[in-house]
Write a structure and sequence with these properties.
The structure is a single chain. A hairpin with a 5-residue loop joins strand 9 and strand 10. The protein has 7 helices and 15 strands. It starts with a strand and ends with a helix. Helices cover 30% and strands 31% of the residues. It is elongated.
Length: 243
Amino acid sequence: MKIKTVVVDDERLGRKELLSLIEHFPNLEVVADFGNPEEAIKGIEELQPDLLFLDIQMPGKNGFELLEELEKVPHVIFVTAYDEFAIQAFEVNAMDYVLKPVEEERFNVAVNKAIEVITEEKKQLKNADGETLSGSDQVFLKDGERCWFVHLRDVEKFESVGNYVKVFFNGNKPLILKSLNNLDKRLNDKEFFRVNRKFIINLKWIQKIEPWFNGGMQVELKTGDKIEISRRQASKLKEMMSL
């Protein structure tokens, strides 16, 4: 099982070293390497790699800013000389973090861990629809100085707040600059449901559904949050869930 891999580092020698180290892992398939963050963003969106080796400090756009622009984020191993970013990297739950100059033994540990996790995910992946975002997909969220890698299955709901969307997961609720309508088009409708003009919920987080006023319904999530479902959307949900 091949793992599609991309390398992003603005230093040519840095990329060359990583490519040489990656050659020792036959199940890693390097589909591209980039020295320019802007080119990397386009390439990653097109190639949809499983694993990304990413430098942090680069001219024009750093690694965190690059990730913020991706709609669907692969697993990431940061490779950088700037160890002051280490804490921030682990806060966003990156796969791993390798300091330059790269020690081969430390690099191998990081890669073997990534291969194990990605291979298991590929085995479990049931939704092969590349056009929509499913619960198994990972996104990168940034709100101020805080950053997260989040699997969409861990998001219990999305709330429209003006021109932004608030994302609720694990007690966090960062704002992202995106409309709820646009998000609704990208999410898998078998897993996420637009209950009204303001909310999209994760169907797997539903605890209880009960009748509500004027033919609508009220859904209670596993978090205890209660959200009203409009009458029109209540009919759709009944049909979907065979209520």
